[in-house]
Queue: 2 jobs
Job 1
Amino acid sequence: MAFGAISANAQKRFDPVKFKADLHNYIITQAKLSDEEAARFFPLYDEMKDKQRGLQKQIRSFMKNKPTTEAACRSAIVSKDDIEIQMKKIEKSYHSRFLNVISAQKLYDILKAEADFHKNTFRKVVKKYQ
């Protein structure tokens, strides 16, 4: 019985490898990417996401512990904003790079599929805990 409880608990943990594979598969299906398009696109996409993930960790560290002074709070807010701008600049830069390997129509479909995947995943998680 204990093994079953541990196994059930382990299945509920976030698996980043599975999440990435599910996201890739969803994008491929929804954007109707060929094998060749996917092979050109996903290495750049994953590179962009890795860079953004590092910045997201910095944002979480700012928000983890509330600063104790007005000046420290102001500094944390400005730093968070600067990091978010960096993330958007990375995204914009990679969008230009993506357009060198796939069409604008495919990139549009990919961006929509990515947003839909995240929205659907969030809804599933919320529904699971309601």
Job 2
Amino acid sequence: MQHKFKSALSVLVLASAAFGGGHAFAQTQGVSKDQITIGSIQDLSGPLAGLGKPARLGLQMRVDEINEQGGIHGRKLKLIVEDSAYDPKRAVLAAQKLVNQDKIFAMIGSMGTAPTVATFPVLIEKNVFSLFPITAAREMYEPLHKLKYAYFSNYYDQIKQTVTRLVKEKDAKKVCLVYQDDDFGLEVLRGSEDGLKTIGMTLTEKTSYKRGATDFSSQIARLKAASCDFVVLGTVLRETIGAMAEARKAGFNPTFLGSAAAYNANVPKLGGKAVDGLYAAMTAQEPYLDDESEQIRTWANKYKAKFNEEPTTYSVSGYCLIDAFANAANKAGSNLTVESFSQAMDSLTIPASYFGSPELTFSPAKHLGNELSRLSQVRDGRWKVVSDYLK
């Protein structure tokens, strides 16, 4: 009887140590004495692999720098990246692995709207943060949730701000739209309609396409027949090039404006003369090896030396997102928990970066860091920033 009593007492003591006063046993998932484990889900083998691969390298570059500098409050960062192939079902499986097997503290910079949204239930169930997905969809921070924070101005605001500015500047009379038939495309549609409404205009014509389309002849023919002199593109990388190449082939040369989804070094690289003149909403600029900015030039060449390839704006995004996480984790202090990190995020300000990103601010009621965009244009085969931030 006495033996049983001692055994029961031992169990109670261990339980008390684990959940009560014994702090050494009370551990936040993904946080140990000397390590913080974080995860990311990228498209490394699907339609957006050209974006996911440089994003992964950018994430890793900043992780390596932080670790070389001693980590965050003495803890090194461990980054684990999984491939979704831009498939929501694969993204869910990847999230389950990262959350349940790898025990990550936070998911950072995951790629794409649909794959990221699909992972939310997995993350929220286990109290794991979704931080700064690489998408400008409003679902990344709406509805407000203590675990969801977004970095990039949304597609709706990007287009609403930039279409108003450019239509007036170009004195356009007939504004039209070609957009992807999904949530992303609908955000561009709504931004276009609401932006035009503020200047007393409406869309003259609109036409959509299915994701992954390669033939844009019918859409371009429809816009040309409507005599559009300004076309908003609700397109991503390949579709931007395909639509503009078809327009040039048809002798159709309106002003073209895309969202940040069209702002990528591969657009002028692969699109050639067909995309010359394209405008796009953006924040951080393409990091060219011979950039006018010495800081960007130095960073770009360091990246090239490390990975043996030139960086893109997605490399910059990955790099900056880890930096933002480090800012918040440093502010949270040495006792890193979900609660301390959330409190740090809700009062966080991130200064403007030398890549051109504006100052980011977060609060308990505002989980989107940046609401501003500016314009860049393809000129002679590369992107050139052509405006300040628009409001």
